[in-house]
Amino acid sequence: DVKPAIRARRRRPSADVISQLLQQGFSDLEILTEAMTYAAAGMATTREFITVAAWHLLDDPDLRTGYLIAERVEREAILHEILRLEPVVGELRRTAREPITVDTVSGRVTIAPDEKIELQLRRTNADPAVVGENPDALCPGRELLPAVPPVLLSFGDGHHRCPGGPLAILESDIFLHRLLAHDVVAAGPPRVRWNPV
Q: What is this structure's pTM?
């Protein structure tokens, strides 16, 4: 699948990852490696999200009913809101490359180069200053500022934004909508484990 896509993008570049990698001079093998990495990462994270979304939809009969009768846009709003509350990656650790000045409730703080930064995505996604009232509640269709994506930082941001985010939501919706249309019930409460990675 990747080799024909590389040939096609060489003839006609597009606004996609393969075209970008070709523009940066990546070899066919390097592009294949990137594609396999995206595919593996996307499968693992989408699988985790589908599991969490199914848990919410099976635990809340009204939410499930609303999801099943909704049009795709409204179903995706429900999935976005679940992902906002339940990001697959809840913490990110980064190292500052240059001084970063941040305004905090305690005052202005400067993070020095090479200092470790831990980003708490679950807490950031529930910031009442950004998401409004009841930040920990599941409120599909929540009104946000135009520049704020409905999942907040659950798909990352900037250079680290997940390129497969829209595909993950679409795949999740297709699977969950078909699955939950059947009379399925959870066999019991889920066993929740946290992966420190």
A: 0.81
